[in-house]
Amino acid sequence: TIASAGFTAIQTSPANTCLVGENGGLEFMSKDGKGKWYYHYQPTDFKIGNYQLGSREEFTEMCQEADKYGVKVLVDVIANHTTPQLDKVADDLVKAGGGSFETLFHKNNDKDINNWDDRLECTTAKMGGLPDINTERPSFQDYFLEFINDCISCGADGFRFDAAKHISVPEEGSQYNFWPNVLNDANSYYAQKGTYGTLYNYGEILDGTGGPSVGGYTQYMSVTDNRTGNDKRNAVGN
Q1: Which are the catalytic amino acids?
Q2: Strands 72-78 and 43-48
Q3: Is the model's pTM score more than 0.90?
């Protein structure tokens, strides 16, 4: 039905292991506002499969079925943060982050972002109470890349990176190498394993970057541009 309607791609909700909410949180959306969709944005580990969407095997089956109709599968992913319920964070993820929560997260992680134009706050402090991962750590990059490449092995054709502007870019300093390290490797892996020509990646950048140029991101991926959409909507409305 999706293919016959003219669509060439779908995007899934985050497929990683995530927080199990109150009463199991099985109601993904609801009219009364009690849907638990937001638990998908509280990772507990970076492995495919969660209690709402299904298993790794079911993810693979979905990708294979989509491919029969020429429909590409994009996966929403979160690299910036984990759930604030630290007792739910997997030991493997903590180990990949250096062995403790002090090393898994940025040192500025003791406070929430207050000034969204302060780039250091934006990239190292908590966003809405969500602990900010130290994405510069090589062992974490390797761990996250395993998840990305596993998605590709199962049939994923691209990714939407949640909260992309909260992860720094190399123009801010050579240590901020998450994007080139992860995306360049994923692009190469997809070229070997993928179904189509190239991997498609885009990042969520809301209301500007708060510091570096958008070009600091677009050399690695496409980005959302909500300000343009806002301007057009306001112009039509007026």
Answers
A1: 162, 204
A2: unpaired
A3: yes
